[in-house]
């Protein structure tokens, strides 16, 4: 791989956070706490969960930057099968800036919410029978810093990008494994969906470089698994037009006009006719839920920042008031669980149970959009090529009803690697039915579709994704 792709940036681009946000963060974060601090706690009970937890849960912080006092918060759930030998997975959630708790409670983790109308009582949790912790130990990480419960003593520490946040994840893993040496010999994988899929190959590259230099614990990195991963606009955005046509969202005539006037470039229109037809395409796509074209279009429960008065109320009382902006999804909406998580996380009993450091994070928001993040890595494809040709395993899967990152785009960038086919396109099955389709390439690269899956496939098709992951992690064919 060209050296320039692997360089560590010597300086990070800085943005200016809004003044009020800076003041709020400075008031919330105690300045005396050392950045290098690492703290962990075994959690045996969670509010809303009936009885003691039937699985091992640890939460904690790991310092990743001395200068700004940045600390990443994590949830570690031990494998329920054979923790001494089962794989360990670091699970990242996309966004960027969505909390790792999404993976813990909505995707592959050990709990899920009871979907019931909110009546003022704390939302209830139950065990997830299809948790990937049945076959692996999983670290769910709030990354980048200032996502979820991760924080920085100096607000400037929140301003990171692809390169700097990936280095922080590498630093986190080095420290975490230093404190958990019993897992060093276990197979280790990086996993995640959406934007996490873009940075995971970069993190894996940093890890492999550190191992080669022997300047970090010898983590047994075996590969990575990513779903509907963002790679670069040339592929991700370009195939939305074809995807929309295939799903019947745009007509033959609109599709033909787009092909004629845009000549394959749907990212940066070069003429007025192309720009106009793409505006029409975008307008039609806006009529549906692009994360899963068959689902209701619902409000996503990502409230706007609360004001300082409510923030102070939260610090003094049991919970904050439910924030109505941008609206409450109805209970039959796919996004209703996110609303329940917002209420549950912003309750003092929850913070106490998870051992959240007081004064570090006011309002918990599942995906923080107001904090800057620099998308400074133009493409992850060179990292995919480098890692797989060096022997690391890769599973790339696509929920086939996603229009944000269509399976067409994922197939296209994988084909651009020009790897030879080892096992040609075929169905893979669950309970005698096709659960999706798969193809295996040289260099241990497997691509699979998940039939009926959306942008975060394990959320929509948990049974199929559980079977897929278990077979792949156990080194069996799908």
UniProtKB/TrEMBL annotation:
Key words of the record: Glycoprotein, Signal, Zymogen
PROSITE patterns: CARBOXYPEPT_SER_HIS
Family per record: Belongs to the peptidase S10 family.
Database matches in Pfam families: Peptidase_S10 (PF00450)
GO MF annotation: an example: serine-type carboxypeptidase activity
Protein name, as recorded: Carboxypeptidase
Keyword Glycoprotein found: yes
Signal sequence interval, chain numbering: 1-39
Annotated SUPFAM superfamilies: alpha/beta-Hydrolases
One GO-annotated biological process of the protein: secondary metabolic process
